[in-house]
């Protein structure tokens, strides 16, 4: 995208009807760190407001009828433009608001994320009733002209947080920045003119008179206000004269309740952060800290220690953690609380005075157990001064926490998660967190109770299948060339509704499992969506399973219905069908066996053709009303999919993944690929794995793209045929798939020019492979994703903006709303750059392993702060920029003479060799060293195979001698098989490969040192 031209360092103008609107009168803001005057800004008149409202009314007639997808693309383009100017916006924020550079960077990032996130939220149209008597439909309709009154504490984030939802829902908006912080908001709206028609996004800059003019103007249809409770009440009174719709996000007096089982130091550090962030100028700051009396002295000491570590100063200076208060009225109000310290005789734990300075600086202060009726407890200071209080019983602290006129947020800090959740349900606040605070997302509604506001902002709920059908309509959703199938989004909605009714007709209900054993075919998708619609977990079985393995997997997952293809690739499934139908342990749960393509070759009990099964969805007894009732029972936390883990380390476990897990993971992967409705994603990876189902289908489906499944089982020629025929813009696969495709292109040259990006998982991509993909397929950016089945699957992903040294060697960075840490064998976090076990946390963590609580608790563990982490079993490290690097499976480490060697490190070095296309490193037993390094290599077809000594010399260039392979096995040479054992998702089965290496090494004799 071309970076829009805009000067963020001067010429601050208001925008009316797409044009700069100068005013006779101007004013200026102050830099709160030094009280220096900033640039002049306009002061709007009532005539300016009338003109802006008239322009908005005119624009609304067109914008409200603009298709949702066009509105969405405009918002996303606007977000990209803000992203391209992020550094300038950060500097502007620090200058006008006073917050330090890291906090300004956070606000800018969040402003961009909020727009992008809200652009992914569906606007469902729900049929509440459809009977002979009546049809009731609930839908979102635009209101008209929205006036956004933006506060001074988050002038950029809260502006975009009002602009994006208004525009996405078809409204037009007039933005009024705070007179204290007008600069960023004015530039934001000026930048928006590049992406929206005149009158859709306008700005007015003014003084204290402008707000009341806007709230009472008869042409304004909705007020969105964020600010103090007192001003909010005035806004409500003013708006009541014309009965406008009003959303108020007002003040808070948020309590934190600290239980005695917490890690005192770590919890104190976090509580201090959330109490004094932005120098206490956030409605969601912690403002009352209740600490259990048994740990009060220790907690106070830890809290004081962390507060003393803060650096107060000009936010533009490096190392400053806390800036000034933003304006003179707020500075005066906070000074009043400091005057009460002496007047009321409060005890001070830290701080307690305001030093003279050239700006509005206030030292962070903690009041030690003030009276419950004191002003510091009852009121919201909106500054860096908080009371520290004690409690002894749950009933007492709940009553005290709720004893306030406000109810915006609260947090419970407790290692006993069940106890914390029980207490949280008793707290009267719109947002209650456990072991954290102020953790917001554009996906969730945000609002307060009591005098903390009216209504909510952000978030929505809806049935994704129905929503996409209404939004995308006749756009192609799914192409399956080998079945000669093309389905639109409307087709998928209709066919999945028929399949859902057929499942209900067959006796399945919410929570019953539905299984499938098939290749990549259109029925797979419609059954997946059908099961999702009625809350039936969809179990996917690995197509490489033997009949015995399939029977075992069906029994372990308690399938009530199983769908089987008559063939998968060239493999017939007759034996699978027969054993499933006749095995006793399977019969305990299985009630329905349905075959695609044809009837079974032998007469079997309760086995049907898929066509006959679907007929029950159209001709059976289940009505649309019954389907809708079933759909209403489905919740985001319900299990959507059950996947068998890859089995690289032994018997696969059954991972339970929820709607929330998979839809969000797919959405974020698609966002990383920058998918739009114009993209065509070619997906050869199998649907029985998260790669095909989530990174492929759901990433495409949530972004309105088209997905192509070229073959039921991977076939390089069919994949390339599909890329050419469908003009694919994205190509997915594991490295071996790309290698096969390149080899196919050598034997049958073709010109591929449409593929702009790709996505790889399972194994590293060598520089030589990336060079070939760029040269022969025109792939400019190849994303690398990392995760595991249990994390839905992606937790790390690279960016299309990453340089090659990051794109090809790292895992990328964590997804939004995801955390990662590296721990040692005792569970302690290791320093940056040091190796340890990769652990991840966040929305993507599975619900658990099906019927295996022991394995669940082994893999998923709460830390001392009550945060749940997935222990991946992978070894890796993080660098200072937040990029992750994997060094191998902990179980795969090679222990040579007592030294731990990382197979991944050696593999990466081997892959850098221009003649090496694939590399797999394992251990081989050795009498002297215990274990030594063995490497399986595949040569690039266009390169001469190097000698073993060349390879050893190559490794020795950058790695120590102990990491040089003692054994080198070339695939397809000297009795070595042409392929290594892999899982169905393309990962090396190293526990099997180790056995192969030991057998081959035994034939060769003594290793080379």
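^ Assign residues to that structure.
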């Amino acid at each position: 995208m071309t970076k829009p031209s805009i000067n963020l360092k001067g010429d601050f103008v208001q925008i009316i009807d797409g044009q700069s609107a100068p005013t006779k009168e101007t004013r200026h803001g102050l830099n709160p760190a030094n009280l220096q005057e900033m640039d002049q800004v306009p002061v709007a008149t009532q005539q300016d407001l009338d003109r802006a409202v008239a322009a908005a009314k005119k624009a609304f007639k067109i914008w409200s009828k603009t298709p949702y997808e066009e509105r969405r693309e405009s918002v996303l383009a606007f977000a990209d433009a803000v992203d391209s100017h992020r550094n300038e916006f950060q500097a502007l924020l620090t200058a006008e608001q006073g917050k330090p550079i890291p906090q300004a960077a956070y606000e800018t990032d969040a402003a961009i994320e909020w727009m992008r996130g809200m652009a992914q939220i569906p606007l469902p149209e729900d049929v509440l009733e459809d009977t002979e008597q009546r049809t009731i439909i609930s839908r979102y309709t635009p209101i008209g002209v929205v006036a956004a009154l933006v506060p001074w504490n988050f002038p950029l984030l809260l502006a975009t947080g009002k602009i994006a939802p208004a525009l996405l829902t078809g409204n037009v908006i007039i933005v009024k920045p705070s007179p204290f912080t007008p600069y960023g908001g004015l530039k934001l709206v000026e930048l928006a003119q590049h992406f929206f028609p005149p009158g859709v996004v306008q700005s007015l800059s003014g003084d204290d008179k402008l707000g009341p003019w806007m709230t009472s103007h008869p042409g304004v249809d909705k007020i969105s206000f964020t600010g103090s409770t007192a001003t909010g009440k005035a806004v409500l009174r003013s708006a009541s004269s014309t009965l406008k719709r009003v959303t108020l996000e007002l003040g808070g007096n948020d309590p934190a309740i600290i239980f005695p089982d917490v890690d005192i130091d770590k919890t104190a550090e976090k509580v201090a952060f959330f109490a004094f962030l932005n120098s206490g100028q956030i409605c969601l700051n912690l403002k009352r800290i209740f600490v259990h009396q048994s740990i009060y002295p220790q907690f106070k000491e830890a809290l004081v220690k962390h507060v003393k570590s803060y650096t107060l100063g000009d936010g533009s200076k490096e190392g400053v953690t806390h800036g000034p208060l933003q304006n003179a009225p707020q500075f005066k109000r906070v000074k009043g609380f400091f005057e009460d310290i002496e007047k009321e005789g409060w005890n001070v734990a830290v701080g307690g005075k305001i030093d003279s300075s050239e700006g509005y600086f206030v030292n962070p202060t903690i009041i030690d157990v003030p009276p419950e009726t004191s002003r510091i407890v009852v009121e919201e200071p909106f500054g860096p001064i908080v009371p520290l209080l004690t409690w002894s019983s749950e009933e007492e602290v709940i009553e005290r926490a709720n004893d306030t006129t406000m109810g915006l947020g609260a947090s419970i800090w407790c290692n006993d998660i069940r106890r914390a959740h029980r207490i949280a349900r008793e707290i009267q606040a719109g947002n209650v967190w456990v072991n954290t605070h102020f953790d917001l997302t554009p996906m969730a509604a945000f609002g307060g109770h009591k005098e903390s506001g009216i209504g909510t902002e952000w978030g929505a709920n809806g049935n994704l299948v129905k929503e996409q059908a209404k939004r995308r309509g006749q756009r192609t959703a799914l192409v399956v060339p080998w079945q000669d199938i093309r389905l639109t989004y409307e087709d998928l909605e209709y066919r999945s509704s028929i399949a859902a009714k057929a499942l209900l007709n067959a006796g399945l209900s919410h929570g019953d499992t539905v299984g499938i054993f098939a290749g990549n075919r259109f029925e797979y998708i419609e059954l997946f969506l059908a099961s999702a619609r009625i809350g039936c977990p969809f179990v996917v079985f690995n197509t490489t399973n033997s009949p015995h393995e399939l029977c075992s997997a069906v029994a372990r997952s308690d399938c009530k219905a199983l769908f089987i293809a008559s063939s998968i690739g060239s493999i017939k499934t007759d034996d699978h069908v027969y054993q499933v139908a006749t095995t006793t342990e399977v019969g305990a749960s299985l009630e329905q066996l349905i075959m695609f393509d044809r009837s079974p070759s032998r007469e079997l009990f309760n086995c049907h053709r898929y066509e006959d099964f679907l007929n029950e969805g159209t001709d059976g007894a289940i009505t649309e009303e019954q389907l809708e009732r079933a759909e209403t029972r489905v919740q985001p936390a319900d299990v959507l999919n059950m996947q068998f883990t890859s089995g690289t380390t032994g018997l696969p476990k059954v991972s339970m993944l929820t709607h929330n897990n998979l839809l969000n993971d797919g959405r974020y992967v698609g966002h990383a690929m920058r998918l739009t409705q114009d993209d065509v994603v070619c997906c050869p990876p199998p649907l029985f794995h998260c790669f095909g189902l989530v990174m492929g289908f759901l990433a495409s489906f949530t972004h309105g793209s088209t997905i192509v499944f070229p073959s039921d089982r991977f076939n390089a020629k069919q994949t390339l045929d599909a890329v050419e025929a469908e003009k694919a813009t994205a190509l997915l696969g594991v490295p071996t798939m790309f290698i096969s495709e390149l080899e196919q292109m050598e034997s049958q040259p073709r010109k591929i020019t449409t593929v702009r990006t790709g996505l790889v998982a399972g194994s590293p991509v060598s520089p030589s492979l990336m060079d070939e993909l760029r040269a022969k397929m025109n792939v400019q950016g190849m994303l690398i994703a990392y995760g595991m089945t249990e994390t839905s699957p992606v937790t790390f992903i690279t960016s299309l903006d990453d340089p090659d040294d990051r794109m090809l060697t790292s895992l990328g960075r964590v997804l939004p709303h995801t955390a990662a840490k590296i721990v040692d064998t005792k569970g302690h976090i290791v320093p940056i750059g040091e190796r340890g076990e990769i652990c991840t946390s966040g929305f993507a963590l599975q619900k658990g392993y099906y019927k295996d609580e022991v394995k669940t608790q082994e893999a998923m563990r709460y830390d001392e702060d009550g945060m749940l982490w997935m222990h991946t079993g992978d070894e890796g490290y993080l660098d200072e920029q937040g990029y992750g690097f994997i060094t191998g499976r902990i179980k795969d480490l090679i222990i040579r003479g007592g030294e731990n060697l990382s197979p991944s490190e050696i593999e990466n070095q081997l892959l850098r060799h221009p003649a090496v296309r694939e590399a797999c490193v394992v251990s081989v037993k050795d009498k002297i060293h215990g274990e030594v390094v063995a490497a399986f290599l595949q040569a690039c077809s266009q390169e001469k195979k190097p000698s073993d000594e060349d390879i050893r010399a190559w490794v020795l260039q950058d790695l120590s001698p102990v990491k040089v392979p003692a054994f080198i096995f070339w695939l397809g040479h000297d009795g070595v098989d042409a392929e290594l054992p892999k899982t169905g998702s393309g990962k090396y089965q190293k526990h099997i490969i180790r056995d192969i290496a030991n057998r081959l090494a035994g034939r060769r004799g003594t290793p080379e040192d």
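The chain has 32 helices and 50 strands.
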